[in-house]
Amino acid sequence: MDNSSAKYNSVPKQENKALTIGIASGISVLLVALIFIVMFVGDSGKYYLASGKTDKSIEKKDETTDAEKISDEERSLEFSSNIYEVETNKDVDMTKYLQCSGTELDNVTWSSDSDKMFVGSDGHVSLSEPGLECFLKASLKDNDKIMAECQLKTRTEAEDLVYQVEALNSSAHSEDEELEGGVVRLAYDNEGAEVIDLSVMNREPGERKDDYTWDKTLFYTLEDVDLSSNSDGKINSYYIEKKQFINKETGNDMEYEIYHNPDTEVINKIVSIEYMNKKLAINEFYYTDDGLVNFIFSYEDVNYTPSYATPNRDGERYRFSHDTMTTWRVVKDGKMYNYCYGSKEAEQLEKGYKGTVKKYSELNDEKRAEYDEKEKTMLNIAYNTFDKMVNAEGISRISGYVYDSSDIGIQDTEVMLSSTDFQCDLFRTVTDDLGYYEIRIPTRALVYSLLFDRTDRIEENICEIDAELDEINLVQETVYMSPEDSTEYECEIQFYDALNRDEDGYGMAMLDDVDVEIRRGVNNRNGDILMQFHADYSYETFNLTPGMYTIHTSKSGYLDCYSTLFVSGDTSNYLEVYATPALNEDEIRIVLTWDDDPNDLDSHLFTPSSSGLEEDYHICYYNMSDTYGNTSLDVDDTNGYGPETTTINHIQRGLYKFYVCDYTDCSEENEESTRMSESGATVRVYGSEGLMQTFNVPVKRSGVIWEVFEIRDGTLIPNQRYYDSIGDKTWWQSGKW
User: Fold this and answer.
1) What is the distance between the alpha carbons of residues 247 and 243, in angstroms, rounded to a whole number?
2) Do 429 and 547 lie in a common domain?
3) What separation in angstroms does the CA of 28 have from each of 21, 115, 596?
4) Cβ(642)–Cβ(334) under 8 Å?
5) Domain range enclosing 462
6) For 46-104, how does the pLDDT look when each residue is reduced to its tens digit (9 = 90+)?
């Protein structure tokens, strides 16, 4: 007998039974416990009895199983076209044009063969230069051999200008279109180009900390806070770019001034001006070199006049640090309230504004909620503004009127805009029932011309329309069109000094020995000379056929002058030319002329020290020179025609702003008069090199204040704003007698 067998068999039957019962009981307990575990945690996915594996391993297996079920031969990527024409510097979502089979977009990686193309991980791309041709590749992350490739190209500068002008002025290019050679031209978002959405809340404020304080360095370096110091006022040396959009929420026009550091091109300040009924809503945003919001000044006004966030000005200020609002300051009717977060910020405020400070912890629930809402709202408005200014090209407008000899608008006149730089036609439109035309163009530094054509009229043109990045409203001189007529009519020009009075002290001194060149068209300074002569006396007569002419006059000791003469059988064909004496290098002269109605237009020049609007620094009819003799109003005309002549004898560092006021209607509180806009008012600005720029009053506009231009550290910047309200600004209408 086997010993092992004997040993096993020697166990008493009772003990075997007990052992069997014990094992069975143990197994039962284990089964119950496992069932309990499965019931308790099965839904949460920790363990499964059948496999004994974690659900993560099962999920992983399920994921790989789904992928394994689709072979590489069944997976593919394909672009809908081989070549796409896209906008320069515009974001394009290329996932719209990629067809994925057997895979998902999140398994796609993107790349390009050019560093001129920005490629995002989400399939958004942009090309940085015109005339580029680059390749874009989409491939699978888990198998880069499965891929698709297409070419992206941008138009040349000339091609793009034609395209953009057409797109801005019509519904053309509103949908993707297929061109020859299989090229797909992607649609132009006309509405998106014109609209800014400030209401989007895509940023959350940062985490508040007790020791955060506002860094005042940026503001106090940019603004000219200390008039005796040269270490501030840096904003006046910044170059300005201007853009305009439509507020998506309100539908109002929005104008923007974007201030770039001239050394780094970083944007440190943006001013937004929203045109509302009878007033302006203005926000001045300040950004650090890293593009973070530092300070916001929000206020309302009727005119945009030189100033900054001085402590006594009504409005709200928002101080930021690390994307948190450290102080919300409200100034109203001379009273100030400071609400701040953090003990350190409160300590700083108490030093200068004791008794006006309340900490966030001291506010009631309603005021805290208001503080929180202000913080998020203003933070998002500031960043939405910054992003739009950086990523969107601005839109400018070339506009004007076409009249007959009786100052009545000529409807349905064809107006053709052409590019002088690229020698090509851009867009054709027609005048409305008032003779008005308007053509939108991208805000670029280019030169244009306009051709006016109507079958029953003599063709006219405007030459050399200079567009710059700081000019968004290019208001043109009114074009007069005469019926077809080959008759020569007698014309007369009289020559005057724009600065010096005659011996009697009433009129302007007359000039003789003047050379004259006459060219066909408006602002034609370099075209073929039609007629030239020397005027021995202070006037000259000659004959011309109907049409518009550029009169170029020159005289020793005077700057060249360009004027426009309209000749017809129904007009006087008479022109007065005002020439300004030559200027030194640091001199600038401003000459305002107009017709006989209204009788009295006034020149107003705010000089660099006028941020506080001290009377000594506001040159006008009641303050005709400053203390130091740097600026003077040399001629004040009160009975029509002008000139009103203002001279800056020594151009200073800082900001000058020039306005024209319709004193006649201001003094009668007729703020919505259209007389100034119908006066033919013209402002010519001269420097030592001659005529710097000519400004024409906007036509058919109600209003009494015309903000014409500004000069920042010697650089002339057009403004062309027009206001129909004077508010409490008494300087526009102070009595003359």
Assistant:
1) 13
2) no
3) 10, 70, 113
4) no
5) 395-480
6) 333 333 333 433 344 444 445 456 788 889 999 999 999 999 888 899 999 999 999 99
